[in-house]
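debug: dumping io for the single-chain case to check the tokenizer round-trip. Nothing else runs in this session.
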Amino acid sequence: MAQFVDDKAPFNNLKDICTWAASIGYKAVQIPTWDARLIDLKKAAEDMDYVSQIKNTVKEAGVEISDFSSHLQGQLVAVSPAYNELFDAFAPAELAGDLKGKQKWATNQLMMAAKASKNFGLTTHGTFSGALMWHTVYPWPQRPAGLVDTGFEELAKRWLPILDEFDKYGVDVCYELHPGEDLHDGVTFDLFLEKVNHHKRANILYDPSHFVLQCLNYVDFIDIYKDRIKMFHVKDAEFNPTGRQGVYGGYSSWIERAGRFRSLGDGQVDFNAIFSKLSQYDFDGWAVLEWECAIKHPEDGAIEGAKFISEKIIHVTEKTFDDFASTGMDEGLNKKLLGIN
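debug: decoded output
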């Protein structure tokens, strides 16, 4: 909902935006916990009467809550000094320029999100990891020996208490692997997993659009990380390199970049392969539209997206296609075919 909430109706309050979402075919909404127009995170963590009120509002609108997200707060759990001022807008104004203050505030926000998720009966939560090392992602100038190891140790140190809090409430933390975060691909997620002792609550919000822009095999990724993928953002993207521009984009605006996000169906992501893989591995989470496009209007993208997702969801078969030719179970025949006395 983060890309749709606005000061104009029907996008300026939870009831109306949920009613709008239901009217165009959505079954659930993913609520960003940083936007007070939608939810008060502190109340959601502490006030069960408020929890009941929000639940009823969403239900009466015709949808349910798939998950909460805390991407802005998660970003502030780990911020390099190089990006300090750029992330001031993610926290209360009185914390501007205060790296430690923003980290403490963000950590508390995540702790409340864990309890709020439990209060609402949710089992997954989407967020960002934050980044201490992103400014060193390209190995020039040469990184000092031990920098990456030290960085991931510190990242794990900051997240372990949060992961433990989510574990207390039975909720998975799902990191959206995203450029700009220290956790942005499989290698970095593996490094983090090692440092948090393979914590069972450290999981993945799978979004293939970010992998298209990194030229990563996003279908193979599912085979490798199927046991850690607990959330799914259905978002399209395209990568069209030219003789002048590639992955890094030349500081261009989104509409001028070789790699850019698109509305569902307008990009290059093979969603048939993705939905097949997720179904193969019995993924039982929500398929959540995330609209980001530099060309198409968001309301058009949302309307088209509901139909697009609905048509991709696979009703998994309960039988094998060649059951009609089955010879049944006969141990004697099996031994005969194998030449076993």
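debug: round-trip ok. Residues 147-168 form the longest helix (22 residues).
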